[in-house]
Amino acid sequence: MTIGDRHRPLRDEVLDELRRLILDGTLEPGAHLTEQSASERLAVSRLPVREAFRRLEAEGLLEALPRRGVRVVLPDAEELQTVHEMRVALELIAVRRTTERQDPEVLGELRAALRAGASAAGGDDDGSTLPRLNEGFHEVLARGAGSRVLSETLRSVRNQVHHLIGGRHSTPDVSWDEHARIVEAVLDGDGELAAILMRRHLHARHHEARTAGADQPPVEDRAVDQDADQDADQDADRLS
């Protein structure tokens, strides 16, 4: 990407590029940055970098080092669990409100997102398409709730989860099957079912991403599994 080649404020382009470098792992956890090094890397002045640092600190992706710039936040199991719980709570609010509002434009975007995701999961993905479509799916659901604050907060929380979990993604075809069931419930106007399916989806994919490549889940994951099992039991009672 060339900073300044779009008709957008420079500070927004710098913010988006630094965020992308963090979330795709180019800037690894613990990486040290200064205004000078970042401005040279992006070929911009220090002012938009300073503004971007402040925003990314607020988003939980950078932490300030007194008189030494900033560093990319290091993964922390306890923090990840907290942020995951925040995400679940906010996603459930979003999917319920989206179901209640039944905005025709949003419903059309959800259908289109599912078609694109199903195609990519079927073998047309180059490795970057599905993560982008997954993010877009949750963005549309959040926007459908009709709250800018909710949408922006959810975006920030999702980014924190993605970073703290190490940028790993869950199984694409499974995720999109779950997305399809959520959308079906939304289209049917069943907000409670949509929320149940969303909670199951988030817990299951979160656990899968955390334990990817591991022989068994760590202690923190087993605690998450127990919470998810309790939620599943409660969901089964509601659906019976």
UniProtKB/TrEMBL annotation:
Region listing for Disordered, in residue ranges: 207-240
Highest taxon in the source lineage: Bacteria
CDD domains assigned: WHTH_GntR
Keyword vocabulary terms for this entry: DNA-binding, Transcription, Transcription regulation
GO MF, any single term: DNA binding
Residue ranges annotated for the HTH gntR-type domain, each copy included: 8-75
Matches recorded under InterPro entries: GntR_C, TF_FadR/GntR_C, Tscrpt_reg_HTH_GntR, WH-like_DNA-bd_sf, WH_DNA-bd_sf
Pfam families xref list: FCD, GntR
Keyword Transcription: yes
SMART domains: FCD (SM00895), HTH_GNTR (SM00345)
Protein name, as recorded: DNA-binding transcriptional regulator, GntR family
Species: Klenkia brasiliensis
